[in-house]
Design brief:
Length: about 325
């Protein structure tokens, strides 16, 4: 469903705002602009610098204990995911300063990206209510997966600071050439979806990848569902066919993917494999248990702007009265 679940969240002068900033991602100029913009809007700001994305969980928990009424996260998808782990279910709004390589979360939702716009949206704008998900006890907001995507992310990690998106493209081509299938059993809401040889299992809350590629054309981050793909493509030719279908918003046309939707997903693998959450690898496992957590996160968005499945953004009446 296309949602208009936005609501008034106008801030009062002096409201407590915690900024969790990845010091390696956020440049000094943007940091100074953000400090000034929040001060201009009258917020009471506490600033927490972190050296790695995973530290955002504890930093956000600390901010919540100290009474933060908004949390601003400056970093990439990994930093945002770690903050979401602490924020989900609290009702405290999240604002995002995109400062990483992919920024799929921010790009898909059309959140304000400039410091002045972020501060203004926090003061007078709306928050959008979104679903989050859990995988083996950890929160994610965008996607979780194992197989080629996790191996690609792991391979790209060392080069992404230098090459940006190109690091993922290069890693993806290399992994598509050499990635061997593995045994997988996938159940969705108790029903067997797939059993056999696969090269990737991907579960999405947000369906759009970098460059507008639709991994899950029907996915919406507030529909109470997770989208599931089990990929059987092998080699560059079959992966190329799959990606062409995704660019055309019809990944199933390649014949190398099994698609469905559900609320609870169980994945059993033939051995321990890397898995990833929101673009960051989380080690190895032979089992993945995932579930949707509906309406568990509030995100600051541009007033009058939400995401729709057919387009990147769609205008709706700002903060409709009576909405959640």
């Amino acid at each position: 469903m296309t949602s208009d679940r936005t609501s008034p969240m106008s801030a009062r002068p002096g409201e407590r705002v915690a900024v969790v900033a990845h010091e390696r991602k956020l440049d000094a100029g943007t940091a100074a602009e953000l400090r000034q913009a929040l001060a201009d809007e009258g917020f009471d700001v506490s600033w927490m610098s972190i050296a790695k994305g995973s530290a955002a969980t504890r930093a956000t928990q600390r901010a919540l204990r100290h009474g933060a009424q908004h949390v601003v996260v400056a970093g990439g998808d990994g930093t945002v995911r770690a903050a979401v782990h602490a924020l989900a279910g609290t009702g405290v709004p999240l604002a995002v300063v995109p400062a990483g390589t992919a920024n799929l979360f921010a790009g898909a939702l059309g959140v304000p990206s400039e410091p002045a716009s972020i501060a203004a949206a926090m003061r007078v704008g709306c928050t959008r209510s979104l679903d989050t998900a859990r995988c083996n006890g950890m929160a994610f907001a965008v996607m979780a997966g194992t197989g080629l995507d996790a191996a690609m992310i792991d391979l790209a990690d060392e080069a992404k600071e230098r090459l940006g998106t190109l690091a993922y493209v290069r890693a993806g081509v290399r992994e598509a050439r050499r990635r061997a299938p593995f045994g997988a059993s996938v159940k969705v809401d108790g029903e067997l979806l797939f059993e056999g040889s696969a090269t990737c299992v991907l579960v999405g809350n947000i369906g759009t990848l970098k460059g507008g590629v639709d991994a899950f054309p029907a996915a919406e981050p507030d529909d109470g569902m997770l989208d599931v793909a089990v990929v059987t493509a092998e080699g560059l030719r079959e992966w190329g066919s799959l990606m062409l279908g995704a660019v055309r918003h019809d990944p199933a046309r390649s014949g190398h993917v099994h698609l469905t939707r559900g609320t609870r997903i169980k994945v059993k693998l033939d051995r321990r494999h890397r898995f990833e959450l929101d673009g960051g690898t989380k080690g190895r496992t032979d089992r993945l248990r995932m579930r949707i957590v509906p309406d568990s996160l509030r995100v600051v968005v541009e007033p009058g702007t939400i995401v729709a499945p057919e387009t990147a953004q769609a205008a709706v009446p700002p903060c409709p009265s009576g909405s959640i």
